[in-house]
């Protein structure tokens, strides 16, 4: 069902992808040219890294350090609208994660189409489907109106959540909420 999305990712192209929060743009995080094309399409500043979506807590643990409260938060809120900023275990393309801090934001979306695509492609570098600084979009139609042919394939769908994920830095002694979003983190 998602063969065209998989082919586009494997060819280093950008795809549109509904998630449980907002509609996103996704690329192969190990393909530097694809990540660069994603930044160009969005007009995203180079200093602002993108994160990863994966299919499960187990997949996340294979590519990122999930220990202590990071593991607890993952078990509590994944799949769901929580992005954990953690240390990667693998080398990622420039701009995927924060090279200076040696961190990456990672999340398991609670969205059937997104997880089905991720199961076929593996982890994807994903950001919201909007021009940098513009409002988030929630459907493939809205994303297509903005990006047109810059995106090779749009997975049909509507993001039911409408609110971005909560971002928590899990690299310190205690969790630090960087962006309050759809998930309320207990104190």
Describe the structure.
- The structure is a single chain.
- With 187 residues, the protein is α/β, with parallel strands linked by helices.
- The chain has helices spanning 3-10, 32-42, 57-63, 68-77, 112-121, 140-147; strands at 15-17, 24-27, 51-53, 82-86, 104-107, 124-128, 153-154, 166-169, 176-179.
- Strands 7-1-2-6-3-5-4-8-9 form a 9-stranded mixed sheet, sandwiched between helices.
- Strand 1 (15-17) and strand 2 form a beta hairpin.
- The protein is globular.
- The model has no long low-confidence stretch (mean pLDDT 93).
Task: Write a concise synopsis of the structure shown.
The chain has 187 residues and is α/β, with parallel strands linked by helices. It has six helices and nine strands. β1 (15-17) and β2 (24-27) form a beta hairpin.
Question: What tags apply to this protein structure?
Answer:
single chain; 187 residues; alpha/beta; nine-stranded mixed sheet; 9 strands; 29% helix; globular
How are the secondary structure elements laid out?
Layout: H1 3-10, E1 15-17, E2 24-27, H2 32-42, E3 51-53, H3 57-63, H4 68-77, E4 82-86, E5 104-107, H5 112-121, E6 124-128, H6 140-147, E7 153-154, E8 166-169, E9 176-179
Range of helix content? 25-40%
What is the structural class? alpha/beta
User: For the report, how would you describe the main beta sheet?
Assistant: 9 strands, mixed
Calculate the terminal CA-CA distance, rounded to whole Å. 42 Å
Overall residue-averaged pLDDT value: 93
- Sheet-strand content, in percent, reads 15-25%
How many helical stretches? 6
List low-pLDDT spans: none
H and E string: HEEHEHHEEHEHEEE
General form? globular
* Order of strands across the main sheet: 7-1-2-6-3-5-4-8-9
Work out the radius of gyration. Answer: 15 Å
Tell me the total number of β-strands: 9
